[in-house]
Structure formats: structure tokens, C-alpha cells
Design goal:
The protein is built from 14 helices and 17 strands. With 411 residues, the protein is an alpha/beta fold. The chain has two domains: 226 residues, 3-Layer(aba) Sandwich (Rossmann fold); 178 residues, Glycogen Phosphorylase B (Rossmann fold, 3-Layer(aba) Sandwich). A hairpin with a 2-residue loop joins strand 12 and strand 13. Helix 11 crosses helix 13. The longest helix has 17 residues.
Length: 411
């Protein structure tokens, strides 16, 4: 079965991965390229549903993306990425909001163009559609995209995401469609099993929690970032997208209670619009007023190991709400792979590591455990954390996923 073509509907852009974004979608894409069964991946960039996002995609995917152009028209482009052992194609389309059926037609046209590049002496491809993107499900329709297997990978519950408030009804309809028509469903969080069960799906659905690239983070020779030269220790660090789910009230509480410690937040700010004003700008100002809080901005994934390995303590200070119960923290695993002591709010999935991390019940408990974690850290505990992370390595995750796929394709 060494003839699989994976058509992947992404939750981000290939250009964003090149700039250092590393999400579940990215890690699975990279690991699939290492699988002998996979000969080709056609990655479809995040399909824009706003004019602003369409402009961004147009620049990133149609104008500036490097590669051999296979197909191009006014609103779309497909390029073949060089320097890859496997065939990799990136498709960018910006008029996705106009007509789902026309989008299907265009994608079929592009896929046919790609198939013409196949050596006629090689066996025909078996196509898997693997979607991370619940905003578009028309590929599942009768006149959609032909495939041997359809997979939906549920990363969070987008109905509860603050950035998709205006699209709740469409998402409810799409999740119902996914529930009824996808051959396989993978979920990032255990609670998503119940979400799909309530929609009527119990068979061929699997909880596959996030993994971690242990080799990337297990770095004993991590370089100290220059920014850290001006920051006093101990350093309490957070690395991830800084958006509405970050508990700014908790961060301010910790900063006031621990003037002898430095809090370093690394990651981009994700604007959330609420009642026509940019709420995130208010939160930035609140954080910046504390002298012991440093905001270092986005750092590429390739440098993430250097930053986390130079934390004294790593934290995951997220709010607990309807959205968080459908998530699964990548960051906690990355912290563990670096051997760092970790404190988290009681997020979905972190209870699996309760023997190795500190889970805080409230602000006061978080502060208490912050000091406890710093005092009790030792080399033996650091190694236990790394050992746990190795059990969650993406390489092991993808092998399990491929076994599920092989069984389903053989039926």
C-alpha cells in the first residue's frame, strides 16, 4: 500500500509553517512525509472566508510562494515544492466564500492536473482526504472530490471558538455533515468523542491526543536567547498564541504576588473582536504595565527549544470555559520534553500528566504551586518528564494513525 495520495485541508497556510507556526496540522503533515505508504501530499491552504484573510492568502500563496507552478488562474495557484523526497503540492485559493460547488470544481481540476504528472508505469494512487478545516465540507457531497477514504481531524470545537462567533450556525451544520459522511474521525480531545456521539457518531471515531517532537526539544545544548540577558531569574515562561483563552487576570495576579520573578510570554497576539473594538489591544496594555512581565512576540518553531530550555518554570495559564474543554495542550508536552516543571490550569487532557505536573485549582493555588515547583525541581524529576514526553512522540502517534488507516482501507 505504498501509493497513498493525501489531500489535506489545512487549518493554516504552508507559508505560515515556513515562518515558524507549528500546530497539530503541521506535525501530522511532516510525519506523513516520512511514511513509506504516502507518495504524495496535496496541501490546501486555509480557505479564507473573509476579505482580509483572502488578501493575506493571495500574497502568501499566489504571489510569493516559491515552487514550480502546476496550475494558476486569477484566484488560485498550485505549486510543486522542490527539495522534497515525496511529491508535495501546495494549493492556494482565495475565492472560497463565493461558491462551494465552484470551489469543488476547481479543486478537481487542479487534482486532475497534478495526476497528469504521475508516471504511467507506477501504480495508481489511492486518495485520502484529510481535513482539519470544518468551515468547508462540500468535498463530502455527491459531486465533491472522489476519494478512497475521508478523514476529519477535529482540532478543538470551532463552534466555541471566539473567532468564529459569526459562523456558529454554519459550523453546526458542517459538523453534522462530517458526523454523517466522514469515514474516520480523529479528535484531539476526549470530550470531542462525546460531542460527536451527541451528533450520532460512535463508530470509526478515535481520540488521538496531541504529540510532541521530542528530538526537537530534548536539547541539552540550548542557546540562551539574547533577550534573556536582560531578564532576571527565576524565569517563569509561557510559549504559545496569546489570545482570549490566556487568563490575563491570572497573569496580573501572579505578577503582583511574585515581584522577585520574571514572567516571559512568547507568542503572537491573536486579535479577537468584541463589540466592535479590539479587545486584545486592551489585554496587551494590561500585561505591559507590569515591569516583571516581558512580551517577546512570535518566535519561529525552530528556536522554540532554546527559549523553553531556558525557562526555570513553564506555565499554561488558560481560562477554563466551553472552548477549553475541547482542546489538548501542545505546549504542556513541549515543556515536558524540555524537562521543565509545569503548572497548568485544569485544561482538558492535562490530568493524564498529573503525576508530573502541577494542576492549579484557582489563582491562590497556582501561586502556591509556582513556588513549590521551583523549590522541588531536581534532575530526577526532569528525566521523568522527558521520559513521559517520549511516550507521546509524534512518530509513535503517526504509526498508530497509519494502522487505523490501513485497516479501514482494507475493508
Amino acid at each position: 500500500m505504498n501509493n497513498l495520495e493525501v489531500v489535506m485541508f489545512n487549518m493554516s497556510n504552508y507559508a505560515e509553517w515556513q515562518k515558524g507556526v507549528a500546530n497539530r496540522n503541521y506535525h501530522i503533515f511532516k510525519k506523513l512525509l516520512e511514511q513509506p505508504e504516502v507518495r504524495r501530499i496535496v496541501a490546501i491552504d486555509f480557505l479564507p472566508f473573509t476579505f482580509k484573510r483572502a488578501l493575506r492568502n493571495y500574497w502568501q500563496g499566489i504571489i510569493t510562494l516559491k515552487g514550480k507552478t502546476i496550475y494558476r488562474d486569477l484566484t488560485s495557484r498550485c505549486v510543486k515544492i522542490k527539495k522534497q523526497e515525496k511529491e508535495v503540492y501546495i494549493v492556494s485559493i482565495v475565492n472560497s466564500v463565493l461558491s462551494p460547488q465552484k470551489l469543488n470544481n476547481k479543486l478537481n481540476k487542479i487534482l486532475e492536473k497534478i495526476s497528469q504528472t504521475n508516471n504511467q508505469n507506477e501504480p495508481a494512487f489511492r486518495r485520502i482526504i484529510w481535513s482539519f478545516f470544518p468551515m468547508f465540507v462540500e468535498y463530502l457531497s455527491e459531486n465533491g472530490i472522489k476519494s478512497d477514504l475521508t478523514i476529519f481531524d477535529a482540532v478543538d470545537n470551532w463552534i466555541e471558538h471566539p473567532s468564529f462567533i459569526k459562523h456558529k450556525e454554519l459550523l453546526r451544520k458542517n459538523y453534522q455533515n462530517i458526523t454523517q459522511k466522514s469515514d474516520l474521525i480523529f479528535t484531539v480531545a476526549e470530550n470531542l468523542l462525546d460531542f460527536f456521539k451527541e451528533l450520532g457518531r460512535e463508530k470509526d471515531i478515535f481520540w488521538i491526543a496531541n504529540g510532541v517532537d521530542v528530538a526537537h526539544f530534548k536539547n541539552k545544548n540550548a542557546i540562551k536567547p539574547k533577550e534573556f540577558n536582560k531578564i532576571k531569574r527565576p524565569i517563569v515562561g509561557y510559549m504559545g498564541i496569546i489570545q482570549q483563552r490566556l487568563d490575563v487576570d491570572l497573569m496580573e495576579y501572579l505578577a503582583r504576588k511574585n515581584l522577585d520573578k520574571s514572567f516571559v510570554l512568547i507568542g503572537p497576539f491573536w486579535p479577537v473582536y468584541f463589540r466592535k473594538f479590539r479587545r486584545s489591544s486592551v489585554e496587551i496594555k494590561r500585561l505591559k504595565k507590569h515591569k516583571n512581565i516581558s512580551l517577546l512576540g512570535r518566535k519561529p518553531y525552530k528556536f522554540s527549544s532554546n527559549y523553553i530550555n531556558n525557562f526555570d518554570l513553564a506555565i499554561s495559564p488558560h481560562k477554563i470555559d466551553n472552548f477549553s474543554k475541547y482542546t489538548n495542550s501542545l505546549k504542556v508536552l513541549e515543556y515536558l520534553a524540555c524537562g521543565k516543571p509545569v503548572i497548568s490550569t485544569p485544561l482538558s487532557g492535562v490530568e493524564r500528566f498529573s503525576h508530573l505536573i502541577y494542576i492549579a485549582s484557582d489563582y491562590e493555588d497556582f501561586n502556591k504551586k509556582l513556588n513549590q515547583a521551583l523549590e522541588n525541581n531536581n534532575i530526577e524529576l526532569e528525566q521523568k518528564r522527558v521520559n513521559q514526553a517520549e511516550k507521546e512522540d509524534w512518530g509513535k502517534k503517526i504509526k498508530g494513525i497509519m494502522e487505523i488507516i490501513k485497516v479501514r482501507l482494507s475493508q
